[in-house]
Design goal:
Length: 313
């Protein structure tokens, strides 16, 4: 029997100030507004408590990290209970001295911690020096049940990898949430900006199509220099391009935010649409799981081409 269950998601696109406590308070305010507008599951951007600090390498910035469970999850749990919503929040996790992760938590509507996902793919690019701060995730890809539906969380750079989306969807996720901090290098924006945003949206819409699920990209917005209470990175900074969106199971854009404003997007998740889409485009049925073992290799060099019996030559 086709499920007729529906629920609403809220995507919070917000600016970050140099004051982490002010950012946290603003995020709580956005959660309450999203809840008042009918959202049941609300997602905040990546590392929402601070400006994007990975624009430089500075040992002092490890002081921003906190344990999970910890202060932020405790405060958000209260908000979740009060508003009766599920909250997805990206935090700088202090796991042990010298060991840190970029982590997304899912808090259920009763305030209980429903899921902890540590970002698996860690970038190291100009002004995105995340390998300095974060160890790769070791909890695997996962989907968790909440009061409203089964959701999967991944984080930012994960969104470029179809393997992560597939493995999360195969665990029954109805929505893939990608809390994100992605933007333009100001000097590159005029030449490459439109193409970069288009690629970012396209790859995630492709995850929605390939897996027959909803996909939510939740970005921050505004020009940032990684300013944390006056500790500021040198250089031109990053212009976070916003453009948060929700795509349906066939990749159609349900809701989309601007590139330069704070916004709260509300979109509906319809399980009947997931069922209908997968019945008509049965990609999961037709997967050749017997033929995919080579995907676990880093690269298939021509001299190691695969023989018919499945063994490398």
């Amino acid at each position: 029997m086709t499920s007729t269950r529906k629920y609403k998601v809220g995507l919070v696109q917000m600016r970050m100030s140099p004051d982490p406590e002010a950012n946290f308070a603003a995020a709580v305010g956005h959660i309450h507004v999203a809840a008042q507008r009918g959202a049941n599951v609300i997602c905040l951007p990546e590392l929402f408590r601070a400006q994007y600090f990975c624009q430089r390498e500075d040992t002092r910035l490890f002081d921003l990290a906190e344990p999970i469970p910890g202060p932020s999850t405790g405060k958000l749990a209260v908000v979740a209970r009060e508003a009766r919503v599920v909250i997805i929040a990206s935090l700088f996790e202090r796991r042990a001295p010298g060991l840190y992760h970029n982590t997304a938590v899912t808090l259920n509507a009763d305030g209980e911690l429903a899921g902890v996902y540590r970002k698996m793919h860690i970038p190291d690019d100009p002004l995105y020096y995340e390998k300095y701060y974060f160890a790769p995730g070791d909890l695997g890809f996962q989907a968790v049940d909440t009061a409203f539906g089964r959701v999967g969380t991944l984080v930012c750079w994960d969104q470029w990898y179809p393997e992560g989306a597939r493995l999360t969807a195969l665990q029954g996720a109805e929505v893939l949430f990608y809390p994100t901090a992605i933007g333009w290098h100001p000097a590159e924006k005029d030449e490459f900006g439109a193409a970069q945003y288009d690629a970012w949206q396209t790859i995630q819409r492709a995850h929605a199509i390939a897996n027959g699920v909803y996909v939510a990209g939740v970005n921050r917005v505004g020009l940032e220099h990684g300013d944390i209470r006056g500790n500021r990175a040198a250089g031109p900074g990053l212009e976070f391009w916003g453009g948060s969106f929700l795509a349906d199971p066939f990749g159609r854009i349900v809701a989309k935010a601007s590139h330069d404003k704070e916004e709260i997007l509300i979109g509906e998740i319809d399980l009947a649409l997931i069922e209908d889409t997968r019945r008509n485009w049965p990609f999961l049925r037709d997967r050749r799981i017997d033929a995919y073992e080579p995907i676990t290799k880093r690269f298939l060099d021509p001299v190691h081409a695969w023989a018919k019996d499945g063994e490398p030559k």
